[in-house]
Amino acid sequence: MAARILSFTVLASAILVACTPTRWSMTVTEQRTLPITFFSTGKPDSETKIDLRIALAQKNMAGLEKALYDVSTPSSAFYGQHLSFDEVKVYAEPSEETVNAVTRWLQESGVSDFEMSGPFNEWISINIQASKADELFDASFEQFVHIESGEHFIRTLQYSVPQNLVQHIELVHPTTAFVRPFVKRPVMSVPVPRIARNITKRANSAPSSCDDTVTPACLQALYGIPSTPATQSSNKLGVSGFNGLFAENADLKTFLTKLRPDMPSMTNFTVLSVDGGQNLQGVNQTDSEANLDIQYTVGIATGVPTVFITVGNNNSDSIGGFLDVINALNAEYAPPQVWTTSYGFDERDINSTLANRICNAYMTLGARGVSILVSSGDGGVSGGQSQDCGTGAFIPAFPGGCPFHTAVGATQGVNETAAFFSSGGFSNVFSRPWYQDYAVTTYLDALGNDTYAGLFNRSGRAFPDIAAQGVNVEIVSGGLVDHVAGTSCSSPIFASVVSLINDRLIAAGKPYLRNPWILAKPFSRSLYANPQAFFDILNGSNPGCGTDGFPARVGWDPVTGLGTPNFEAMLKAAGL
Predict the structure, then answer these.
(1) Domain ranges of the chain
(2) Catalytic annotation on 488?
(3) E-assigned strands of 83-215?
(4) How far apart are CA 153 and CA 38, in angstroms?
(5) Which H/E stretch holds residue 41?
(6) DSSP string, 480-500
(7) What is the mean pLDDT of residues 467-473?
(8) Per-residue pLDDT averaged across 244-255, rounded?
(9) Residues 6 or more apart whose Cβ sits within 8 Å of residue 481
(10) How far is CA 401 from the centre of its chain?
(11) Of the residues 30, 170, 293, 346, which is catalytic?
(12) Rounded to an integer, what distance in angstroms lies between the CA atom of residue 356 and that of residue 206?
């Protein structure tokens, strides 16, 4: 069967007095060449206004990272004692010195229209004329067009900040970011190969019909996922929705009636709006991606309260609200314990400073006790689908390379093999975290030094971490049955497993799972002592960039990670 792929803002309180702009000694902060997917149409009208955000240096992100690992690592005395919003703020807010220095510069430069923004007041938002932006940042902002979509962007290839503010300003955004976020929509017509060698066989295998159509019943059989309802109302599961994609209540009802008849068909989800996001209903509003994400959370994490986080177009973060949704959840009093996202872009599309800033925003959320799962991508080692690899080097996906969440790859078939589109590899921005050392070095040693030499960063953060089914997944969209494929399927499925484990941990009075629980000590020792905690995937690869990609092997690999979930064994490894 063929499968179709699928602010919180605080206003500045001072009344600013305009003054004569001062000339400052400037230091180049960022510079880049124009991506081949864009072209310039020249300077915008000098009166055109643009929204920019200045990222202020935060007090102690290294200390917050240590706190994150302390509350996430089972061997730590602080395990499970996640931080409150106010406790995180102590680390993540800018110093008074930083705020005063930057706001003074803005005032003395004649910029009076600005506001503090972000959950920790770690950004300053400004709205200024393009000509003023050129002057303020010693830049040359131009109008650029994305060739494929025709979308227009005002960007610059270089900008500077005053030399005396380098320690206070991390970046200005959007300046050199040329991003058009894409939905992780898998390829059309995905075949399921009948391969006999190196297959993982297990006692709880699903019916052979699940080779052609994956349903909740298939996943329950494959992974041992229980159908009994969760009992802890405090345990919540968040689902991201971007690009004006809506999840249909009527489609969910039809899905549950057909594929989860043991559940009340009226089971529904709540909605959290970010940037004016909506969740419009009706056949003309339906979308396969949003329906997939909701149907395979509500329909797998039985009884877990699910919230659809819909991100609208009233944003100025220039990455589709990607940063705004993290900030919005950081501002929540009680964010969901598990959050799944099926969207992303290529790591090369943004500069390393912005990538680190976004990743640190994930870290602040993780320190508050949120396990963040993201789909790894659908282009094999080439990142997004049908990517031009240019020099031939592999293209890591983002945010899959960020070390503060769990990236999910895809498998296919009853006797599971790696799905060929499952993105994976090694980040060029983030170094390998300590919790990956044993698993990843074991794989690299087996791969050998000569294989793909120079095409990937052997010391980078490796992804994905784990995997789940991602081919021929049955959904209902627009009232019709559809079959979809991609890591967009895999992330909500695995997030549902984590939510159900958390439900049982909370009921037992134990700390629930957090990133980086997948590989953190001593949980990793439990995994390798008991390999059935995950079903190891031994066959398949993720081709791209003119290569066969990375092969799946025993243990962790950059196609399926540690493997797919074994619910009962994961419960045992988690202490139940």
Answers:
(1) 26-58+93-173, 204-574
(2) yes
(3) 114-117, 123-129, 142-146, 152-155, 158-162, 169-173, 182-183
(4) 9
(5) strand 38-42
(6) EEEEEESHHHHHHHHHHHHHH
(7) 96
(8) 93
(9) 258, 474, 475
(10) 9
(11) 293
(12) 41
pLDDT score recorded for residue 244: 81
Residue of 424, 438, 325 whose CA lies nearest to 381: 424
Pick the catalytic residue from 30, 65, 134, 289.
Answer: 289
Three-state secondary-structure class, residue 205: coil
Q: Read off the pLDDT band of 271 (50, 70, 90).
A: very high
Q: Could you give the C-alpha distances from 434 to 452, 460, 561, 570, in angstroms and in order?
A: 24, 11, 16, 22
Alpha-carbon gap, residue 239 to 336, rounded angstroms: 9
How many Å apart are CA 519 and CA 516, to the nearest integer? 6
CB-CB neighbours of 165 under 10 Å: 20
Nearest to 559 by CA among 460, 487, 474, 479: 487
Binding residues: 536-537, 555, 557
Q: Sort strands 371-375 and 406-412 into parallel, antiparallel or unpaired.
A: parallel
Asked if 24 and 162 count as a contact pair (C-beta separation under 8 A), the reply is yes
Instruction: Look at strands 338-341 and 237-241 and give their pairing.
Output: parallel
Burial class of residue 448, CB neighbours in 10 A (0-12, 13-18, 19+): exposed
Give pLDDT tens digits for 342-398.
988 889 888 899 999 999 999 999 999 999 999 999 999 998 766 678 777 999 999
The residues, ordered by sequence, that sit 6+ positions from 66 with a Cβ below 8 Å of its Cβ are: none
Asked if 8 and 323 count as a contact pair (C-beta separation under 8 A), the reply is no
Across 301-312, average pLDDT: 96
Whether cis (ω within 30° of 0) applies to the bond prior to 516 is: yes
Query: In which residue are the tokens 């600013």 written?
Result: 16
Instruction: Write a three-state SS string for 143-164.
Output: EEEECCCCCEEEECCEEEEEHH
Residue 70: band (very low, low, confident or very high) from pLDDT cuts 50, 70, 90: confident
Measured in residues, the chain has a length of: 576
Regarding pTM above 0.70, the answer is yes
pLDDT exceeds cutoff 70 at 12:
no
Q: Where are the alpha helices (DSSP H) in 173-248?
A: 216-223
Can you say which residues are annotated as belonging to the binding site for Ca(2+)?
A: 536-537, 555, 557
Q: Which CATH superfamily is domain 204-574 in?
A: Peptidase S8/S53 domain (3.40.50.200)
Rounded to a whole number of angstroms, the CA Rg of the chain reads 23
Lowest mean pLDDT among 170-179, 187-196, 232-241, 437-446: 187-196
Cis status of the peptide bond prior to 174, with omega within 30 of 0: yes
Residue type, 74: P
CA-to-CA distance for 240 and 374, rounded, in angstroms? 10
DSSP state of 435: G
Of residues 435 and 85, the one with the higher pLDDT is 85
Per-residue confidence (pLDDT) for residue 202, from 0 to 100: 58
Out of 316, 422, 488, 524, the active site residue is: 488
The two three-digit tokens of residue 439, written as one number? 């698993």
The pLDDT of residue 293 is above 70: yes
CA distance 567 to 500: 9
Whole-angstrom Cα distance, residue 506 to residue 82?
Answer: 14
User: Tokens 């009921």 identify what position?
Assistant: 507
Q: How far apart are alpha carbons 192 and 211 in whole angstroms?
A: 7
Mapped onto helix, strand or coil, the DSSP state of residue 66 is helix
Which residues lie across from 311 on neighbouring strands? 274
